[in-house]
Specification:
The complex is a heterodimer of chains A (400) and B (415).
Chain A (H helix, E strand, L loop, with lengths): L5 E3 L2 E3 L3 E3 L8 H10 L3 E7 L13 E6 L2 E8 L8 H14 L4 E6 L4 H14 L3 E5 L13 H4 L2 H14 L5 E5 L6 H11 L3 E4 L3 E3 L2 E2 L6 E2 L9 E4 L4 H14 L4 E4 L5 H9 L5 E3 L1 H6 L3 H16 L26 E6 L9 H9 L4 E3 L5 E3 L9 H5 L5 E6 L4
Parallel strand pairs in A: 3-4, 3-16, 4-7, 7-8, 8-9, 9-10, 10-15, 15-16
Antiparallel strand pairs in A: 1-2, 5-6, 6-14, 11-14, 12-13, 17-20, 18-19
Helix pairs in contact in A: 2-3, 3-5, 5-6, 6-7, 8-10
Chain B lengths: L1 H4 L3 H9 L8 H4 L7 H9 L3 H11 L3 H7 L21 H11 L16 E5 L3 H12 L3 E5 L8 H5 L7 H12 L4 E3 L10 H7 L2 E4 L19 E3 H10 L11 E5 L3 H12 L4 E5 L11 H9 L3 E3 L2 E7 L6 E10 L8 E4 L5 E4 L2 E4 L7 H6 L5 E3 L10 H25 L2
Parallel strand pairs in B: 1-2, 1-4, 2-3, 4-14, 5-13, 6-7, 6-13, 7-8
Antiparallel strand pairs in B: 9-10, 10-11, 10-12
Classes of the chains: A alpha/beta (400), B alpha/beta (415).
Chain lengths: 400, 415
């Protein structure tokens, strides 16, 4: 089998797939099962000092349906784990003992310097491999000056990260960032300045997943009210990819990616844009821990097909191709082309071009789209609509 | 079967999600009633089931009946673009779901004419009722005449209950009746009311009287007791009337290869026939019955004797057997059905207790009588060729439109 190992913050992961700090890692037994399924590591759900009051509400999750399918996105109003450090340090010990080759990370959150430092020290003593600090939870925690309140203020990011890094003697420190900031590279830069080892991008995107249209309560509803929550899942992948790419390109700090990774293709895309560690939450909750088998096999098959001998070779490979808008070519023309053999004559491209494009597609009598290459500006919208992927943009010689 | 077709909410959503919402969708183009099929399916997908039902009834006043009986594989589903990648959307089942779960809807509003006229509609089948409804909703005064004692026409007497619940049909005919000036059952044209009277009293006649008697088998012994016309047989079977011989415990031969033959063969089986055997002169390929109907007959244990022609019905005073002859098929002209030629000398006698002839129906004599009258319009089977309920519904509506054009032209000419 292809070697999928990859180094992140000085630790060699047997494979880059890691369960994110979430419900999936809130029990020792669950993490053990995940490791048995093949996950390279796990970030235990964010813990706190014993005095921190964690009061959860239920239900805490609602999905976003799209076109007859479930869970295009997931919103949660969950908080950090209600298990405090005393429980989590025991779990770290047990898991490290049972799975010494896997990376056991722990996520922490505190209100005061003493909390942060106490958490780090106790976890380190318990044998944790890596510390992740949540500066990014967008709901609940900010109301007490925690979570994304820190992540949105570069000064607080730097100061808090420094506290943690100072307290850590041995283990690397990773700061989990929020996308709710005008420029995420500023926050990542602050992490770098603090001396911490890496960043995790991104935490959930602040949102409201829906509203009950019959009794006017937003979702997820807790009795008769709701609150703004954090959106995760496939729908936030583009935001996460952008954040990862910006940090990789402009800051240069090791990144563990999180945000919508569902398939091995998503995983490859994150690697290509500079991530060197891949965290999965929503998809693992949706499909179960066995998902990692497919992620690993898919990545391995891709590497074989592309002749990559290590995952390292993939990291950042797409970054040189990400440039400013100004630097994009204006000196070529593309037009849409139809593969008539594959076309199923649905006419969706016609509607798309007519009402969302440049009226360059007409339908022939036998219902095959005809593209007027003079009218086609090459916007590419039709290729996003075709249910059988039979339209493609092709480069043509421009007439002078 | 009717039960089997019902979709749960989850199944309906799943099925609706598969619709591509094609441009100038072939399903809609293949629907005789012109229902906005992608439109109603999209509404199911978005959870607006009542809206979906409105879309259906906007074009087809017999939407629930058609949901039960439409040969969707021959119509809307046949050219579904998704057939090219997997399978068609189950449009018929989605229609059934929408009419069932859409609740009560207001029937579509129509713009009222400023020139109301009097129209007599003859025949309370789907064509007559849909035409009558269209005219009435436009503000015309419509009197409906029906020889039978209830509305529904062929769907009422010709389709078995397991396939079309009479409750569904009645609900739809009742709704239509509400809009008409009068509904006159047990009123036979030429007996209870004269044609001349109608022509004098009404500005237009819409004739939807259906077909006449079944074509008879012109072979020796055809007059023997134990030979029955398929239409009569089905009528008795479906309405519980007496007067036709029971197939119970008998070997039943059904002569013909159309949908009526399949229906009769199924009905015979259902009524306890020992064997129900379709005798058809040509092969599977030429059989005019729809594939789905043939499949259903086979699944229900109906047997087939293909390329076999009846020669003589044998019996002393009632049917005891039928003499038949195998045929070979001779193609005389490209594009035409091959001619069955009997293999002389190969005749055989096959014991049978009941023979049902399904050789097509003849024209209703009323049609010829009323032909060439300017104010007389035809629809449904009376106009020829409307094989399905949905085609009859569409035909009735089209005839109603023609009548209204006729009125406008009359007005313009100052008549």
């Amino acid at each position: 089998m292809t070697d999928l190992s990859l180094e992140f913050c000085g630790i060699r992961y047997p494979n880059p797939f890691v369960l994110a700090a979430a419900p999936t890692t809130d029990k020792e037994e669950m993490v053990a099962r995940a490791f048995e399924a093949g996950w390279g590591g796990a970030v235990l759900k964010t813990t706190s000092v014993e005095t921190e009051d964690v009061s959860l509400v239920y239900p805490m999750m609602t999905g976003l349906d799209y076109d007859g399918k479930r869970l295009a996105a997931l919103q949660n109003i969950d908080l950090i784990s209600h298990y405090h450090i005393d429980v989590v340090e025991k779990r770290v010990r047990a898991l490290k003992k049972e799975f010494p080759d896997r990376v056991v990370a722990a996520s922490i959150m505190g209100q005061a310097k003493e909390h942060w430092q106490e958490l780090v020290q106790r976890l380190e003593t318990a044998g944790v491999d890596l510390i992740e600090c949540s500066f990014s939870c967008p709901h609940g925690m900010p109301e007490r000056g925690m979570g994304s309140t820190i992540g949105q203020n570069p000064d607080l990011v730097e100061r808090t990260a420094r506290w943690v890094k100072e307290a850590a003697r041995r283990v690397p420190v990773v700061i989990k960032l929020t996308p709710q900031i005008a420029d995420i590279t500023v926050a990542a830069q602050a992490v770098k300045k603090s001396g911490a080892d890496g960043v995790c991008a991104i935490n959930t995107v602040k949102g409201i997943i829906g509203v009950d249209i019959h009794d006017f309560v937003p979702q997820p509803r807790v009795l008769d009210k709701s609150t703004i929550g954090g959106v995760s899942g496939l729908a936030i992948k583009p935001v996460a990819l952008r954040c990862v790419a910006e940090i990789a390109r402009d800051v240069g700090i090791p990144i563990t990616a999180s945000g919508g990774i569902t398939t091995w293709r998503d995983a490859v895309e994150f690697l290509l844009l500079g991530a060197r560690n891949l965290q999965v939450c929503t998809a693992a909750m949706q499909y179960g821990f066995e998902l990692v088998k497919d992620l690993k096999e898919g990545l391995g098959n891709y590497m074989e097909e592309m002749n990559f001998s290590s995952v390292e070779e993939i990291v950042g490979k797409a970054l040189p191709n990400l440039v400013d808008h100004n630097s994009l070519s204006r000196n070529h023309k593309v037009v849409s082309r139809v593969d008539e053999d594959r076309c199923i004559n649905c006419g969706r491209c016609y509607i798309a071009c007519n009402d969302g494009g440049h009226q360059a597609i007409t339908m022939s009598e036998d219902r095959v789209p005809q593209i007027d290459e003079e009218e086609c500006v090459g916007c590419g919208f039709c290729t996003t609509i075709c249910p059988v992927y039979c339209l493609q943009m092709e480069r043509v010689e421009e007439k002078s | 079967m009717a039960e089997e077709k019902k979709l749960s909410k989850e199944a309906a959503l799943f099925e609706a999600a598969g619709c591509l919402k094609c441009h100038q969708a072939p399903c809609q183009e293949n629907c005789p009633a012109g229902i906005d099929i992608p439109g109603f399916i999209f509404k199911i997908k978005t959870g607006d089931i009542k809206g979906a039902k409105r879309v259906l009834y906007d074009k087809n006043i017999f939407s629930a009946t058609c949901a039960a009986v439409c040969p969707v594989e021959e119509l809307c589903q046949e050219n579904c673009n998704k057939n090219q990648v997997s399978r068609s959307v189950f449009i018929g089942q989605l229609q059934g779901y929408a009419v069932e779960e859409g609740g009560d809807i207001d029937y579509p509003e129509e713009e009222l004419t400023d020139d109301p006229r009097k129209i007599a509609v003859i025949g309370a089948g789907p064509a007559g009722m849909s035409g009558a409804y269209r005219l009435a909703r436009a503000g015309h005064r419509v009197d409906l005449f029906e020889a039978g004692d209830r509305p529904g026409g062929t769907p009422y007497w010709g389709i078995p209950e397991w396939r079309l619940s009479r409750e569904i049909l009645e609900k739809e005919t009742k709704e239509i009746e509400k809009h008409l000036n009068s509904v006159n059952f047990n009123t036979r044209i030429g007996v209870d009311i004269q044609v001349e009277e109608l022509l004098k009293d009404y500005d237009a006649l819409l004739v939807c009287c259906g077909l006449g008697d079944g074509a008879s088998l012109r072979i020796k012994g055809a007059e023997l007791e134990g030979t029955v016309d398929a239409v009569k047989f089905l009528k008795a079977h479906n309405t519980g009337e007496n007067g036709v011989p029971s197939p119970e415990g008998k070997v039943v031969l059904i002569i013909g290869g159309g949908n009526t033959a399949m229906d009769a063969a199924l009905a015979a089986k259902e009524a306890g026939a020992e064997r129900s055997i379709v005798v058809y002169r040509r092969s599977w390929e030429e059989m005019p019955a729809w594939k789905a109907e043939i499949r259903k007959a086979i699944d229900s244990g109906v047997e087939f004797m293909l390329q076999t022609a009846p020669v003589e019905i044998v019996g002393r005073d009632k049917v005891e057997a039928m003499k038949m002859v195998p045929t070979r098929l001779v193609r005389e002209k490209e594009g035409r059905r091959p001619r069955p030629v009997p293999l002389e000398g190969s005749e055989f006698v096959f014991p049978a207790g009941l023979i049902i002839t399904a050789l097509g129906q003849m024209e209703n004599p009323l049609v010829e009588k009323l032909q060439d009258q300017e104010q007389v319009f035809f629809a449904g089977d009376a106009a020829g060729g409307d094989a399905t309920v949905v085609q009859a519904v569409a035909g009735g509506k089209e005839a109603a439109e023609k009548i209204m054009v006729f009125f406008r032209e009359q007005k313009e000419r100052g008549v």
